[in-house]
């Protein structure tokens, strides 16, 4: 591990604790032009270190940026992981709104982090919202957030996050919506797909949606005989989310299972995925 890797996460944690007015000052064009050239400072300009309006609204903590090595000390496994950052609530909602009636489905967030998509999913009539992540610390925060949301909205679907490597996780049964925000690379993504395909083949899952925000490894799912495209587009951040994420818009691609498939309703569902790098993809 390099000195830079050792210093990066404590530095990011320190920046995240700065008052908002100081974080806003770092985003001024004059200071940004200088600081963004410094490797250790570039992560500051992802926008993820600022406390998201979603957190302010509900009194929770889903903000921040956590380096992959801080998520997992095993270097081989860390090399396959993406850093933690929360996806935008507006994009999650717009994606889920395409699915139609999901009453009684199980929502599963792979690489759930602090649980922002789980909280958004609890707004919908899912039976339960389950999160899986390899980080003990992030899962602890996700469950603390879940407790806060349950206290405030007792009628919502229950939320639970567990510490689990995707290679070891048990796939829920019944009707399932799997959500991901670019959690890891193609090796682990293929492992996940094989688990889902096995569950579809043996009937454990009756119907499946895979909702992939920032679909860097989307070709893995396009290659499956058990899945077909449901939806594909670029979603813009909502106005109040600008500056709280690394982009201004994100690609979302959704697949559904061939088994139990619903009639196709989106004509441009087969739009091409273009991968910029291992952290970013677009839908054209």
Defining traits:
single chain; 284 residues; alpha/beta; Rossmann fold; 2 domains; seven-stranded mixed sheet; two-stranded antiparallel ribbon; 12 helices; 21% strand; globular
Account of the protein in words:
This protein is α/β, with parallel strands linked by helices. The chain is built from 12 helices and 9 strands. The chain has helices at residues 3-16, 20-26, 29-35, 39-42, 53-58, 68-71, 75-78, 89-97, 116-121, 136-152, 186-201, 218-222; strands at 106-110, 128-133, 159-163, 174-181, 205-213, 227-236, 249-257, 273-277, 280-283. The strands form 2 sheets. The chain has a 7-stranded mixed beta sheet with strand order 3-2-1-4-5-7-6, sandwiched between helices. Strands 8-9 form a two-stranded antiparallel ribbon. A hairpin with a 2-residue loop joins strand 8 (273-277) and strand 9. The termini are far apart. The mean pLDDT is 86.
């Amino acid at each position: 591990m390099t000195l830079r890797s050792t210093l990066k996460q404590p530095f990011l944690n320190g920046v995240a604790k700065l008052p908002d007015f100081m974080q806003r000052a770092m985003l001024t064009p004059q200071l940004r032009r200088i600081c963004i050239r410094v490797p250790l400072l570039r992560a500051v300009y992802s926008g993820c270190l600022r406390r998201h309006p979603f957190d302010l609204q509900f009194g929770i903590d889903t903000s921040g940026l956590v380096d992959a090595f801080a998520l997992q000390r095993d270097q081989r496994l860390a090399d396959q992981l993406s850093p933690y950052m929360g996806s935008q609530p507006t994009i999650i909602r717009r994606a889920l709104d395409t699915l139609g009636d999901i009453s009684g489905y199980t929502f599963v967030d792979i690489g759930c982090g602090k649980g922002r998509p789980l909280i958004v999913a609890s707004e919908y009539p899912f039976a339960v919202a389950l999160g899986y992540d390899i980080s003990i610390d992030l899962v602890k925060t996700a469950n603390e957030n879940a407790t806060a949301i349950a206290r405030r909205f007792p009628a919502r679907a229950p939320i639970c996050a567990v510490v689990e490597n995707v290679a070891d996780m048990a796939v829920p049964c019944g009707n399932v919506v799997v959500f991901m925000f670019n959690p890891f690379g193609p090796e682990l993504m293929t492992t996940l797909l094989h688990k889902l395909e096995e569950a579809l083949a043996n009937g454990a899952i009756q119907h499946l949606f895979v909702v992939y925000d920032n679909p860097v490894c989307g070709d893995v799912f396009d290659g499956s005989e058990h899945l077909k495209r449901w939806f594909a587009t670029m979603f813009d951040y909502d106005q109040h989310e600008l500056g709280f994420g690394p982009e201004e818009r994100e690609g979302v691609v959704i697949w559904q299972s061939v088994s139990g498939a619903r009639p196709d309703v989106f004509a441009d569902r087969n739009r091409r995925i273009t991968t910029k790098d291992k952290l970013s993809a677009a839908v054209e």
